[in-house]
Design a protein that fits this description.
With 271 residues, the chain is an alpha+beta fold. The protein folds into two domains: 99 residues; 118 residues, no CATH class. It is 42% helix and 15% strand. It contains 13 helices and seven strands. Strands 3, 4, 5, 6 and 7 form a five-stranded mixed beta sheet that branches. Strands 1-2 form a two-stranded antiparallel ribbon. Helix 1 runs antiparallel to helix 2 and helix 5 packs across helix 7. The longest helix has 19 residues. The N and C termini lie far apart (70 Å).
């Protein structure tokens, strides 16, 4: 865009375009991103930062960031869709700082010495890499920590806290996450209950504090019961081993508890 504007100014100076054309073209070529001189800042180097700086900006200490890269299996170097190559350390720091609320991409420029579009691509690519590697932890119930003995211990812990049910192993609820008002299709994401434009997510939390399942995003106008039907959580429970043992989860007031009859299900299995 800056080069295009320079060309428009040059054309106007050579009398190639008139005043009206110059005004229209110059205004139409206005860049969407702020013109911040990112090249004037020093290149990013994590080793030059102290632990307090890392904790403040990234919410992790310096050595923990290196450990996080290894644990999340982020490749040492990867390429964005436009061919931009970035190393894992810088990409992880951009990703962490972007999600350290509140933070905008323009605020990352002085630290990482990169323009806004590149920062956005790097953060999104890092997020995609982490999701592609670990999304199964939130989308399937076939986890080692969700086997039948663990579910029985969860149900027992909930019952000992005063719950009337002896076979309730977790809790499900929908969460409304406000977003900026979109330019189009505002009614689709508008939540009349919270009076905000939003996206909704549904999660199932076990007594140990871990999220057993996460579904979303769903448009903000959807009711919790509609989101439950879309997530196909109940059919998944009916086809797994531990639901045959009559263990199910508790719901909120808007989502009635649905119990599975283990004898009926077992009788439908082929001999």
């Amino acid at each position: 865009m800056p080069k295009l504007r320079d060309a428009i100014v040059f054309a106007y100076g050579c009398n190639v375009i008139n005043d009206v054309e110059y005004a229209l073209l110059y205004d139409a070529s206005k860049p969407k991103n702020p013109d911040i001189p990112y090249f004037a800042y020093d290149d990013f180097n994590l080793d030059n930062m102290t632990d307090d700086e890392c904790k403040t900006e990234f919410r992790f200490y310096r050595n923990d960031i290196y450990n996080l890269i290894d644990v999340l299996r982020v490749p040492a170097e990867f390429t964005c869709y436009n061919g931009l190559k970035v190393d894992a350390v810088e990409a992880m720091c951009i990703f962490l700082k972007r999600f350290a609320y509140p933070c905008r991409y323009a605020e990352l420029i002085p630290r990482f010495s990169k323009p806004e579009p590149q920062l956005c691509m790097i953060a999104n690519q890092t997020m995609n890499i982490i999701y592609d590697t670990w999304h199964h932890l939130f989308t399937t119930f076939e986890q080692p920590w969700l086997d039948h003995p663990k579910l029985e211990s969860f149900a027992e812990a909930i019952h000992l806290k005063g719950a009337a049910l002896r076979n309730c192993w977790g809790f499900i609820d929908g969460t409304v996450r406000p977003i900026s008002r979109p330019g189009r299709h505002q009614r689709v994401v508008y939540n009349g209950h919270k009076k905000v434009h939003s996206l909704k997510f549904q999660s199932i939390v076990a007594p140990n504090g871990l999220i057993a399942n996460l579904f979303g995003p769903v448009e903000g106008k959807r009711h919790d019961s509609a989101m439950l039907a879309q997530s196909q959580v109940l059919p998944q429970h009916r086809t797994t081993h531990w639901i045959l043992m009559a263990i199910f989860f508790a719901s909120t007031v808007t989502q009635p508890i649905q119990q599975v009859n283990k004898f009926k299900v077992l009788s439908e299995e082929p001999c």
